[in-house]
Specification:
Layout (H helix, E strand, L loop, with lengths): L1 E2 L18 H5 L3 H4 L6 H4 L2 E7 L3 E6 L3 E5 L10 E4 L6 E4 L5 E5 L7 E6 L3 E7 L6 H14 L2 E7 L8 H8 L7 E3 L6 H5 L9 E6 L5 H9 L23 E4 L5 E4 L12 H7 L1 H7 L16 H7 L5 H43 L1
Parallel strand pairs: 9-10, 9-12, 10-11, 12-14
Antiparallel strand pairs: 1-11, 2-3, 2-5, 3-4, 5-6, 7-8, 13-14
Helix pairs in contact: 4-8, 8-9
């Protein structure tokens, strides 16, 4: 069952009456083809990154299906690359159509790229105690920021006595995001998700461990990704998928399976958060002070709306937390980039002096 509150539908330039090529099944689109010079494609055929390991990449193209050694953190799953004739290293990484990223887990200040060149992100959550509106909102904000269409997928509806509270909560998050309710073990996934899973499209399943992401991948691709159940004590899942893997289907889209992320800190996602909370963002622009914290300041439009009873205080708290976190992470990452750049200049200067 689908509750579609969005007017945006995925588009594809692939002719349905023509058998798709492998490149089309991999997600090749005019956006990428337009980046190649005449004859360049024949000399260095494009390939798509389907897996990233610590020191290597697995790439697939019309003439290549191999692992190449390349310890470069600037390449992620979903990237399109041109590889050299020896098929040993990338010659060039093509510009990305989209990029979903987060602040890396732990204290290290860095950006972790999740996936590139997605068309749709299926944000998966179970109809049980693991359902969490704030977590779903984080995934949606990242998708909006990247220009990727989010779809909320509610699984395990067959194990729930009453799905309506989950559906109501998910639908209330954003009128731009469709909500799909299904049993991942039935034939529903292919039918309910078909409108986003057309040839030439790339979709990803994002969410916590144990919500059914790998089961959905199996349903769409016919593959046999290992799956596990959830702990009955707290409805939390066990990790099954340990790395991101782009699966290629024979008759539809490219499908990305991802491991559950215990920590999802947003960074460089201000516009995504604004798109997720447009009413609160617009109200904040009416505040008397541009740096209003919406706590005690006079002339605060947010406080006035709270007093008038037109704002949900829980939703306001989630927006405040996300916006504050995003600003702090973005500033700390900017500081790190500045320090790294300054260090690079210092090293370059020392090397130059030593050559004299």
């Amino acid at each position: 069952m689908t509750r579609d509150t969005s007017q945006n539908q995925p588009q594809t330039d692939i002719d349905a009456d023509t058998a798709p090529t492998l490149l089309e099944l991999l997600g090749w689109q005019p956006f990428f083809a337009d980046q190649l010079d005449e004859g360049e494609m024949a000399l260095t055929p494009p390939a798509r990154v389907t897996q990233v390991h610590r020191n290597s990449l697995h790439v697939v193209g019309e003439t290549v299906d191999t692992t190449i050694v390349y310890p470069d953190t600037e390449i992620t799953v979903g990237d399109w690359i041109l590889i050299n004739e020896a098929q040993t290293k990338p010659d060039r990484v093509l510009d990305r159509q989209s990029l979903i990223k987060r602040r890396g887990a732990g204290h290290d200040r860095h950006v972790q790229m999740i996936a590139a060149n997605l068309d749709t992100s299926f944000i998966v959550s179970s109809c049980n105690r693991d359902f969490n509106v704030a977590r779903i909102e984080r995934y949606i904000a990242l998708a909006f920021e990247a220009g990727v269409g989010p779809v909320i997928v509610l699984t395990k509806a067959d194990l729930c006595d009453d799905v309506e509270p989950f559906v109501t909560a998910a639908t209330a998050i954003s009128n731009k995001v469709p909500v799909v309710i299904l049993n991942a073990l039935s034939d529903a996934p292919k039918r309910e998700l078909a409108q986003w899973c057309k040839v030439g499209q790339t979709v990803a399943f994002l969410g916590s461990s144990g919500v059914g992401k790998s089961t959905l991948v199996n349903a769409l691709t016919g593959s046999n990704v290992d799956t596990q159940g959830v702990r009955e004590a707290d409805a939390r899942g066990r990790h099954t998928t340990t790395s991101r893997h782009l699966h290629i289907t024979h008759d539809s889209c490219a499908v990305l399976d991802t491991p559950g992320m215990r920590e999802l800190q947003v960074t460089d996602a201000a516009s995504g958060i604004s798109d997720l909370f447009p009413d609160l963002h617009n109200l904040s622009l009416e505040c008397k002070f541009s740096d209003c914290s919406h706590q005690v300041e006079p002339g605060c439009a947010i406080l006035a709306a709270i007093k008038a009873g037109v704002i949900d205080t829980d939703r306001l708290a989630r927006w405040n937390k996300l916006a504050t976190e995003e600003q702090a992470n973005s500033e700390s990452l900017a500081q790190r980039k500045f320090k790294d750049k300054k260090l690079g200049k210092t090293i370059k200067s020392i090397k130059k002096k030593n050559r004299k």
